[in-house]
Specification:
The structure is a homodimer. Chain A is α+β, with helices and mostly antiparallel strands. Chain A has helices at 16-29, 34-49, 59-69, 97-115, 132-140, 193-202, 233-253, 293-308, 324-336, 342-348, and strands at 12-14, 79-84, 87-91, 117-125, 144-149, 155-156, 163-165, 170-176, 179-186, 211-212, 227-228, 278-285, 338-340.
Amino acid sequence: MSDEPDDTPATVVVDAARLERLASSALRRAGASEASLAAAVRAMMHASLHGIDSHGVRLTEHYCRMLCSGRIKRAPELRVEQSAAASAMIDADDGLGHYASYRAVEVGCRLAAAAGIAGVGVRRSSHYGAAGAYALAGAQQGFICFSTTNSDSMVALHNGAERFHGTNPLALAAPVPGRRPWLLDMATSSIPMNRVLLYLSLGKELPMNVAADRNGSPSIDPKEVEMLLPLGGAEYGYKGAGLAGMATLLSAVLTGGVLDSDAIPMYDDADQATPRNIGHFFWFIDPSYYVGRSRYEQGILRYLESLRAAPARAGTAGVMAPGDREWRIAEQRSAHGIPIDQDTARFLGAA
Amino acid sequence: MSDEPDDTPATVVVDAARLERLASSALRRAGASEASLAAAVRAMMHASLHGIDSHGVRLTEHYCRMLCSGRIKRAPELRVEQSAAASAMIDADDGLGHYASYRAVEVGCRLAAAAGIAGVGVRRSSHYGAAGAYALAGAQQGFICFSTTNSDSMVALHNGAERFHGTNPLALAAPVPGRRPWLLDMATSSIPMNRVLLYLSLGKELPMNVAADRNGSPSIDPKEVEMLLPLGGAEYGYKGAGLAGMATLLSAVLTGGVLDSDAIPMYDDADQATPRNIGHFFWFIDPSYYVGRSRYEQGILRYLESLRAAPARAGTAGVMAPGDREWRIAEQRSAHGIPIDQDTARFLGAA
């Protein structure tokens, strides 16, 4: 399962197909090439449909602004360089990050189908949306797929008193025969920064151990919060910080991308013209080359069966496999429409 | 940095070289082949030297018992099957897990040096000790290396009321030019089960949100504790549970190993004769095929420099890169000897 859905007040409900058309039109008006806008809309619709609203169509306006201000190139030309039997680098040419990332999935699945495993790095990219969109795309083609990116500093180190890592997500998806994949898509902080902003506007206290004041001391007061704490909180945050470092090592150090602390903040008002050089990394495994396809399929079905049969603690929502909550939301939203906030509705012309 | 060192009362201090000889002799007496015992001792000494005492030489007695009872084969013959340019499976022949795992590092580094990335699965194995031992071995050869294994059920699912996953570790190491590697080695629970046993014997309360009673409700009373909670605790435990699932998917489902909940418990008194079929998974990346070796090296040095320069929260031990604490302990223990508990000292003849 992914991070909790963002509980932003949402008052307009729009049919998925219409929302997709509206987001496409907006990006088209901002000058994005058809290939790059199709990828961005696909990734945003993945997020909007599955309840990851922070990475959904609400980002259309931001992307349009960046296409107009010059940070993101309107008609990028991807350069794919296969460096060995199982490795490739993609230069995203400063376009929308989703475009290079879906290309990475194509390239990676093709390489893994021949080499057993493949790893694809992306450099000179920008925000790629929900990490799980690409892991899912790989799993839908029959591969176990991992996706990560780094992002601008937002999260303290363990024992740190300054923003250091981004909320750097890790996503993994694994195919399940005849069913939707197993899909984990998680930030390496406990909560996203927009949760803090939401609680601030609602006048609510934050949970313990998820955010800190300007001295790095854990704080539940959203007015005081200057940074997030890594997953694990004040005691076990070295684990979350280590996982965030894994994202940075693979996405930035391995690809030649920018380090989190050097990255131009996504929502920087001062500089919206300089490309950010965000990096991503993906790997892909073809189970046929390990236990074999049919035993892999038996294995994952048995694993999920045993997981779903596990007893739940009284008073909880029950046990779920990663992804189960998303599929449930997607089903509901496919049937009844996708709730979006007023500002986004206005921008897209859906209000 | 790895999980916190186990604060088991340790009263005998033994020189590292002597400890290594004593552990080797014990395994030799139990009938282990020279090749397999050398690997087990190397992995245990990694743990003992770096402060991961739960996976150190104290396991010698357990391994000896399993070699004698028939669960672990004394003279296993590893079978390595390269299935494609970047993938291989190793059949561990029910021997000591360390033997097949160090072989996986050899095979994986060789494949990655040609293919850019490689993935090696191990099946029909047994306990492999500290996950970080193999990640470190790969990094020492210049590769970014990931290591994981599953293990018998100990940790509840998020919202679960029963042991489901093992404490399933994830380890990643990355080479740093002229210095010791970046090394993360973490369980996907907040604490290990032997921490609960230690607190029980000390009559101490556990931290909040790390363990649960038989109903799956968080408990700080070690007398009541029946299972661990996944990293993230009662609120964000779906992240820790998802990461534990990642370990199971890669180590067991992908290799044909046993699922955590089907695994014979490591310390089962009833059956010490049946092999456990534990699985492991490793991947290896050669940075030369991505950003290139020299830019990779500049990048990781810059990342670590910026990390170590990050301000620390007052009153804490300061910020550290994953591995830093281990290198410090190793330096100290290399110079002054390794503290071991009385039982282990007695068993090894070091008392």
